Amino acid sequence: MKRLGTVIGAIGAAALVLWQSAAAMQQPQGRGGGRGSGRGAPVRQRKAVLAWADTRNGIAQHDSVSHALAVIERLGYESGLYDTYIRTDSNIISKQPLMTDGKPASGGPSLANVDAIFFLGHREIQLDRQQKADLLSFVHDEGKGFVAGHTASTAFESWPEFGEMLGARYDGHPWNTVAGTVINEDPAFPATKHFPPVFNITEEFYQAQAYSRANIRVLLRLDMSKMAPNPEVHRTDGDFPLAWARMYGKGRVFYSSFGHAAATWDNPDISRMYFEALKWSLGLTDADTTPRPMK
Amino acid sequence: MRNALALAIVLLVAVSTGPHAQVRKRVLAWADVRSGYQHDSISHAVATIERLGRESGSYDTFIRTDSQLITKHPITFPAGTGIATGEEFNVRNLNYFDAIFFFGVREIELSAEQRADLLSFVREDGKGFVAAHSAATAFFSWPEFGEMLGGRFDEHPWGIADGTVVVDDPAFPAMRHFAPRVTVHDELYQIKDFSRDKIHVLAHLDASMLDLTRPLVHRKDGDFPVAWAKSYGKGRVFYSSLGHDADDWDNPALQKMYVEAIRWSLRLVE
Lengths: 295, 270
Description:
The complex is a heterodimer.
Chain A lengths: L1 H24 L21 E6 L12 H15 L2 E6 L18 E2 L8 E4 L9 H12 L4 E5 L10 H7 L2 E2 L6 E8 L13 E7 L3 E2 L7 E6 L18 E8 L2 E6 L11 H14 L14
Parallel strand pairs in A: 1-2, 1-4, 4-5, 5-12
Antiparallel strand pairs in A: 6-9, 7-8, 7-10, 10-11, 11-12
Chain B lengths: L1 H16 L7 E6 L6 E2 L3 H15 L2 E6 L34 E4 L9 H12 L4 E5 L10 H7 L2 E2 L6 E8 L13 E7 L3 E2 L7 E6 L19 E8 L2 E6 L11 H14 L5
Parallel strand pairs in B: 1-3, 1-4, 4-5, 5-12
Antiparallel strand pairs in B: 6-9, 7-8, 7-10, 10-11, 11-12
């Protein structure tokens, strides 16, 4: 019996590998207008994105983080729309970053030379007062983009202005990873345009707290009528946002809780959502972010 | 009951042999660039290494530009630092990984304990260490690192230039796909502090095609390795100087060289 199981399992695995190979073959070849040798051009032709995921703070790094960063990098590279700097430290969260010996950084990203941040950090990340001011100013005053995924809403609980910028805070995941139905509240928004009005997805759905629909424009929400009752659900009005956009001063902010598992970042609808959100945050597309009540 | 058991076994096997299974090797792509010049190619390089491991099913990758995981000791934080401590704590350290892909630069801050753990990861634990380009500029103040790597950076006298690479060992997994002579366009490094007695040179630059009158050319015997393999204790070490520009990492031959080197360092190939 066990041997049969092994055989069937092996066949399944082989089929999966074949399927993956076929999928890989369909990937566009070449760099498709990516930065390539133009990278060293004196005038930056493409936008620059800092993919920032400082996870040094004691809680488990999600296994998906590195894959997510690599996917974000690839989408920018292949489209030729932006170059990505991947960093898991926070030295570069500064308009004048320093090396470890205190001298000015050599090469690399800073808040003075990138156009948006893709943020996938979690919990309390150590930034000094000046770094925090620089980060808020980057978005609020300079109008740069801030796109954040999944664990990002658990970050900086002790820093009220960060919560204000992001638009909400994390309040657990009552069902852990589970299938759910998602309502697309804004099919006109660039990052949610490709989703049908209603769709199903398996995800670790984060419950958001400390938000107001007067301050964020909810793009996607969980259909609570389809979810099993759960004592950890604290919201009583049936609202459960999964993606939203807002303005923070002059800057554009997007958050979605999608992306717990590495495989989720291989879901073209999910990677496209983040890609379009980045484009929007970079000012490459426009959208209405007027907050509105649940409908 | 029997059917349920059989189904459970099938599911278990299917899960454990699937592409996301924990049986896959684990690679730490380590590119701490906080103390030197960050090459623009590094993020694309580590993202490419991640993608190739995932697509091939050979390994999963953790990308880190900090050096926190370079330790075999528990990673702890003092209470009151605003950082989570206690039971949720679950950071992976070197013990979790099977190989390191290293694309750091210059002097990286590591404690004495971290340095000892890194050497032991390769030498005693028999894990892999695959290093690219600026890796040869790293840790000049740390002799044992140079000994592990097998050579040191000694300038790039020709800057970014065309060069002819001569393959020394076409049988080596990371070299098999190359023609005997390959033209590359890269930032060509001069290597110092190496001995062909200690490293197995896989490919070198054809010195007859290089301007040896350049002021920074120090090597008199015309030996300019661009890739080598060596053992360090029980572990396997590979280095290549190729990969300065982001689009170098789009070259399938260069990709294959590094992936095969990683697979060799992981003992997936001999």
